[in-house]
Amino acid sequence: ETILKISNLHKKYKNVHAVNNVSLEIHKGNVYGILGPNGSGKSTTLGIVLNVVNKTSGDFEWFDGKSSTHDALKKVGAIIERPNFYPYMTAGENLKLVCKIKDIPFTKINEKLELVGLLDRKDSKFKTFSLGMKQRLAIASALLNDPEILILDEPTNGLDPQGIRQIRDLINLIAQQGTTILLASHLLDEVEKVCSHVIVLRYGVTLYQGTVDGMLANE
Ligand code: ADP
Ligand code: ADP
């Protein structure tokens, strides 16, 4: 079952070929990494498939093209920037707001807070959370509608070692539950620890594509 198919994608900014002929197929149940140093085109690629950045050429298709990109994106959970929650509202209140906006039943709130290990902090104000807790709340929020795929851009940036471990454990748990995951990272050990498949980018060009085990064997 194909979740996303990217074919010969290009993105050119004025002076930069940010994405240079990237192709990628994402199948249900796997965890995919986009690995590359800063500026290699990871965020641009994610932005294009999420319809927030315009492509220059090439194509992408969600769910075998059975629905429009607009409808398909309702089945996608994505965290591509620092999530903006209301600091003086509690975790539970913030998620309630998301449920209202997206027409999701409130019953999902406890389920997702429990999944990310924040159920006991449901009534704490967002501003009291550590960065790691904020990120886990963002993941809970992105999962409220039980998306087919979770997309994360540099999910552990800025976190301390304990926060990094918690996020990586959480990603593995979400993957075990059957959610397909696509994550962008500049950290080899992050991709090693959570991904089964990887595309390695540099200056927008694909350097390697395949299993993580294959990449490590090729080094
Ligand atoms: P990554 O996510 O791997 O750090 P990006 O996709 O953010 O890489 O950036 C890829 C390249 O495109 C970089 O050289 C970056 O400077 C450039 N770039 C990204 N966004 C823009 C933009 N809006 N305008 C001009 N150049 C951009
Ligand atoms: P960036 O790398 O995008 O510049 P930083 O990690 O430097 O982001 O964080 C910028 C600000 O956003 C900091 O004040 C930080 O406390 C806040 N922040 C970071 N992560 C989150 C989050 N998940 N939710 C809310 N605020 C956050």
Automatic annotation (TrEMBL):
<keyword id="KW-0067">ATP-binding</keyword>
<protein>
    <submittedName>
        <fullName>ATP-binding cassette domain-containing protein</fullName>
    </submittedName>
</protein>
<keyword id="KW-0813">Transport</keyword>
<comment type="similarity">
    <text>Belongs to the ABC transporter superfamily.</text>
</comment>
<feature type="domain" description="ABC transporter">
    <location>
        <begin position="4"/>
        <end position="219"/>
    </location>
</feature>
<keyword id="KW-0547">Nucleotide-binding</keyword>
<dbReference type="GO" id="GO:0005524">
    <property type="term" value="F:ATP binding"/>
</dbReference>
